[in-house]
Write a structure and sequence with these properties.
heterodimer, A: alpha/beta, Rossmann fold, 12 helices, B: alpha+beta, Alpha-Beta Plaits, 2 domains, two-stranded antiparallel ribbon
């Protein structure tokens, strides 16, 4: 078990040595790199990263360049979790043979988009968690296949317009509800499951450090606003992120040992789902009178989920 | 990897390339930091030391690692890797802002001379 890096405030945090370098080709204002930087800077230990195919992978590893100043592996879309669990097993086997790579402990982190987590990479993630490997899986949740032009995924929320669920005269866009991945991973019995947002950096760092301390699989769901496909100005990324958190569309909470719920951030002034939708171009059709029921129903569901989480936190179950 | 390798096309490479660590001479590294994305930008952020409180919000929320901090203080902006997204300006808490977007043609001295005045509406 390694020491926790002391990060009391942003000034302490800003002395971190960057292991994710600039010059990558992610869109201006993309939250992926903010999440990755905050997570990698939360520890001084060695880190081994695996990424699923997606925006993050294609933009940071354009041959022959790499943005990662650490061990990095990419195999396919569907097997980020399988790749990292194999790497972790190999590391443990080599350690038993007396071949440690470094004095510092090594942490294993897998980054996947929501396509590589909710849909395509789900079976490898489920398998790796079931086998109990010591790794952290981070889902960069931008609610769609943004790398290939914004198709819907099972993470796309109801009412969202994407290229494969377009909004028009008849359709209000995506018809299905978003999959609740955090609860699904908690049901797997993960030691630690959390939802984070890059705009709440302290909460993110605290949860990441808790994740680095864990000895079993950890799942972290990070909301990652996408300026290109959510259709907002690039400089608004962090504002949209705050809106998502304050409207409780993305509540920040954690589940330990599969049952103990803690809500880590309670907004002082709760915003409405309408405000969250109004800030993004992908929901603009929902403000037409014939589709207004989508936002109303969504608000009811968000309120119910929020109440459910608070009740579970209070009851400690 | 040498410069000669970098000039090769993708089909001329042998399989299984080794990318070395970022330490060492510049000829042996393949860090994306060698690649400039400055031409993505139409507007650039300009820093004004006068108003900065060194809160480091711009450092933590920069997607391109382009805000360089040294000894817990804002040091400079890395204009080679800044894509001009404007998040640093958006999160800057000071009034007037310590970072403001100016067009690419404006020189930094010129920008500081034309710095926006304190926004009194925000205080009220």
């Amino acid at each position: 078990m390694s020491d926790i890096k002391q990060i009391k405030n942003l000034k302490d945090f800003s002395t971190s040595v960057e292991r994710f370098q600039g010059g990558h080709r992610l869109c201006p204002g993309c939250s992926h790199s903010i999440i990755v930087r905050e997570m990698l800077n939360a520890t001084d230990d060695n880190i081994c990263v695996s990424t699923a195919t997606g925006c993050l992978e294609v933009c940071t590893a354009i041959y022959p360049y790499t943005s990662w100043d650490l061990s990095w592996i990419h195999i396919g879309f569907e097997n980020a979790a399988a790749a990292i669990s194999g790497t972790e097993a190999m590391y443990k086997a080599l350690q038993k043979k007396g071949r440690p790579h470094s004095d510092k402990p090594t942490k294993f982190v897998a980054f996947g988009g929501d396509g590589g987590t909710y849909d395509i990479g789900f079976q490898s993630l489920s398998g790796a968690v079931e086998r109990g490997h010591d790794f952290i899986y981070v889902c960069l949740d931008n609610e769609g296949y943004m790398n290939t032009g914004g198709q819907r995924s099972s993470s796309t929320p109801i009412g969202g317009a994407t290229t494969t669920s377009p909004a028009g005269k008849v359709s209000y866009g995506e018809k299905r509800l978003k999959k609740d991945m955090v609860q699904i991973m908690a049901a797997h019995g993960c030691e630690f499951v959390a939802q984070v947002a890059p705009s709440k950096w302290k909460d993110l760092v605290k949860k990441t450090q808790r994740a680095y301390q864990a000895s079993g699989p950890v799942y972290i769901n990070a909301v990652s606003p996408c300026p290109t496909e959510w259709k907002f100005a690039p400089e608004k990324s962090m504002e949209i992120c705050d809106l998502a958190v304050d409207s409780c569309v993305f509540p920040l909470y954690q589940i330990e040992d599969g049952h103990k719920v803690t809500v880590t951030y309670k907004p002082k002034v709760k915003k409405t789902v309408e405000e969250y939708c109004a800030a993004q171009g992908r929901f603009k059709h929902l403000f037409r009178p014939e589709f207004s029921h989508v936002i109303e129903d969504w608000q009811k569901r968000v309120d119910a989920t929020w109440e459910y989480l608070l009740k579970r936190e209070e009851a400690g179950i | 990897m040498t410069e000669e390798h970098l000039l090769k096309g993708w089909e001329e490479f042998e399989a299984g390339a080794i990318l070395y660590s970022f330490d060492g001479s510049s000829h042996h590294i393949n860090n994306s930091i060698q690649h400039s994305v400055a031409d993505w930008r139409a507007e650039k952020p300009v820093f004004n030391e006068e108003h900065c409180i060194h809160c480091q919000f711009c450092w933590v929320y920069c997607p391109d690692t382009s805000i360089i901090s040294k000894d817990k203080q804002f040091d400079h902006i890395d204009y080679v890797h800044c894509k001009g997204c404007g998040i640093c300006v958006d999160v800057c808490p000071t009034n007037p802002k310590s970072l403001v977007m100016f067009t690419e043609q404006t020189t930094n001295d010129e920008a500081i001379r034309n710095w926006p005045a304190k926004d009194t509406k925000k205080d009220a």
